[in-house]
Write a structure and sequence with these properties.
The complex is a heterodimer of chains A (179) and B (156).
Chain A lengths: L1 H6 L1 H18 L18 E4 L7 E2 L8 E6 L4 H15 L4 E7 L3 H11 L6 E4 L3 H5 L7 E5 L5 E6 L4 H17 L2
Parallel strand pairs in A: 3-4, 4-5
Antiparallel strand pairs in A: 1-2, 1-5, 3-6, 6-7
Chain B lengths: L1 H16 L13 H12 L17 H15 L4 H12 L14 H36 L4 H11 L1
Helix pairs in contact in B: 2-3, 2-4
Chain lengths: 179, 156
């Protein structure tokens, strides 16, 4: 009878490990989603990418709901994300600002000319000063900023049609209604 | 000759071990501040490559983070303040030595738990086999007079 109890030990270990992995593997520390949420956008002034534009600074974001999109001309996933940004900006009228991260003004402006420009303003962050301040780990990353200048949502990786429709768009509508 | 060869080989390997991701132009001219920057960088995870420190990594973001660490040290931050600055932005995940807090208890004490459970199982097992081997001959094989008789005849 005693040996029967021992026979269950591997099963018990399997179940415990199964639960541990089910919890552990779902929770990807890479996403680091929560840290910057509900914090104010850091203060910054970035040089413009396009010659005819003014510098892009944190006070440009004041009083409106906006998206700040970290991209780079070197970034393959940004090309994939680009069409949806164009649609959001031009058909749905969302204020999107671009940060050309680890890029040069020439490369970034050529990229915008080639694919089209979804950004109201585009700033250059060649040495990751704003990127590190925002806890950016890769491009593209997109921050949703409310009217008071607080970060309310962070999308790591390209915005998909699904993420736009089900998450970002409803959040923007709610934030627009805030005072 | 052999000693010198061995020494040369050992030095060669140590030389490789210290090949720096930190580029010469990144380094601070003050060796004490540079040393502090190295110490801070060694405990900060490269968020692009995940399992290297920014001190070891050749990734561009790691290089920018090293510059930032140095800039803040030169500006007068303590090592802890610099580390906290990065943790504030990336979370405690960037620390290669995870801090002791509630969510990391399993990480810190899990291995000890495994050793204890393993030791308990081993001990129980050892006790069981030990008692078995000392008792079983008496209990299992009963004296059979017929066999004894046969053996006696056999020996004759």
């Amino acid at each position: 009878m005693k040996s029967n109890i021992y026979a269950f030990i591997p099963l018990i270990i399997l179940v415990v490990l199964g639960i541990a992995f089910a919890v552990g593997l779902r929770n990807d520390p890479r996403e680091m989603r929560s840290v910057m949420i509900d914090r104010p956008m850091p203060e910054f002034i970035l040089q413009p990418v396009l010659e005819d534009q003014q510098p892009f600074a944190f006070f440009d974001l004041a009083g409106q709901v906006s998206l700040v999109n970290i991209f780079g001309s070197w970034c393959a996933a940004c090309v994939i994300e680009h069409p949806i940004l164009m649609r959001i900006a031009h058909r749905e009228g969302v204020a999107i600002y671009g940060v050309a991260w680890r890029d040069t003004a020439i490369d970034a402006s050529n990229w915008l000319q080639r694919y089209g420009n979804p950004y109201r303003k585009t700033g250059l962050d060649a040495e990751s000063l704003l990127a590190i301040d925002l806890g950016v780990t890769g491009a593209p990353e997109t921050f949703l900023i409310d009217k008071s200048g607080n970060i309310r949502f962070k999308q790591v990786g390209p915005i998909s049609g699904e993420i736009w429709e089900q998450t970002i768009k409803p959040m923007i509508l709610l934030l627009e209604a805030e005072e | 000759m052999t000693r010198i060869t061995i020494l040369a080989i050992v030095m060669l390997f140590f030389g490789f071990g210290q090949a720096l991701a930190v580029l010469p132009e990144e380094q601070l001219s003050d060796p004490i501040l540079e040393q502090r920057a190295r110490e801070v960088s060694k405990n900060l995870r490269c968020v692009v490559c995940q399992n290297q420190s920014i001190d070891d990594s050749n990734a561009e973001l790691a290089a920018d983070m090293r510059k930032l660490v140095r800039a803040r040290i030169v500006a007068g931050d303590s090592n802890e303040q610099v580390t906290q600055y990065i943790v504030d932005r990336y979370g405690s995940f960037v620390l290669l030595r995870p801090p002791l807090k509630r969510s990391t208890f399993a990480l810190w004490f899990g291995p000890l738990g495994f050793v204890l459970v393993g030791g308990l199982v081993f001990w129980q097992n050892a006790k069981r086999t030990h008692s078995k081997s000392s008792q079983s001959p008496k209990t299992k094989i009963e004296k059979n007079p017929q066999i004894d008789e046969i053996m006696k005849n056999f020996r004759k």
